[in-house]
Amino acid sequence: MPLEFSIRDDQQHTSQQELEAIFADPGFGKHFTDHMAVATWTKEEGWHDAAIDRYSELSFTPGSAVFHYGQEVFEGLKAYRRADGSIWLFRPEANGERLARSSQRLALPELPVADFLTSITELVKIDRNWVPGGAEQSLYLRPFTIAHEDFLGVRPAHTAAYYVIASPVGGYFTGGVTSVDIWVSLDSARAGAGGTGAAKCGGNYAASLLATRQAQEQGCSQVLFLDAADRSHIDELGGMNFFVVTAQGQLLTPELNGNILPGITRDSILRMAPDLGLEPVERGITLDEVLGGIADGTITEAFACGTAAVVTPIRSLKVGEQVHSLPQVDSPWSLRIRQNLVDIQYGRIEDPYGWTVRVC
Ligand code: PLP
Ligand code: COI
Fold it and tell me: 3-class SS at 100?
């Protein structure tokens, strides 16, 4: 039986004037819409009590498992307002499928993809006035499932809760579409073989925060993590996948080795690449290969990609005290890829892949 999200509140609680003020400078994840989607799961009843409710504080007992053992998974996707005012999602079923895979890895209940899609579309419809229409702006949607049970035994919880919250956003990095400096962490890892690297769970991000602080202290915006086992292959960034472009027209990204999040942006770029004139290659890539390629000119570009970051060119990789600067290229591939992607997302060009879904 599909879940029905009953509407507990459908009022707009924020004035149009307040919305305009937020849209003037939304930042990323600072403001939240008037509503949220909620659903409850118990071992006995499965998923039930689904609703769209007012965005509000949640009440949990301190014994709730999520606070102790981090049994939590989340997603990130965006709703885009097009020039004609209509609102669209980008590959939302891929996020629903990934949430289900992450849930399975974290021993959390899997929300059926159809119910995931209902939760997203119902929330976006109710909060449609919160979808900004400015350049590169969107409504960032954050679905998440948590272990809710008030129990300290270390075992999968018997009760869980699912929520979707939404936040109007501009660019993830301050300063607009600009290139970023990246800190390569030589001593910490975010994930290891058999671990949760391929799942989108809070614990992976918690593991990345100390290195993120080090990156910031080094004047860098993000951390690039290496494979935990050999410390030589590149995995991904703290919250983005990693690509390089070669002088021979190859678009290289680390293969999905179980430690890397299978990014939907990553997958979309790999699928677009041949149509743009690049040869996509997924394989193991060592840090030495990248640094050597930057030095001898065989690697011309590097970029980060993800829902939040879209496609963000990398200006330099900092390894210890050494700064390895990428060359300045005219008409970089990264910006052409970015443009093609956002043009599809905002409906400015045809979507030959069938990725975009209209909400309202
Ligand atoms: N890798 C990590 C660790 C991320 O947090 C994200 C962001 O979601 C990505 C990669 C990119 O994934 P996607 O393109 O699906 O947003
Ligand atoms: C996303 O891109 O959706 C993420 O979850 C990554 C995070 C840096 C916001």
Answer: helix
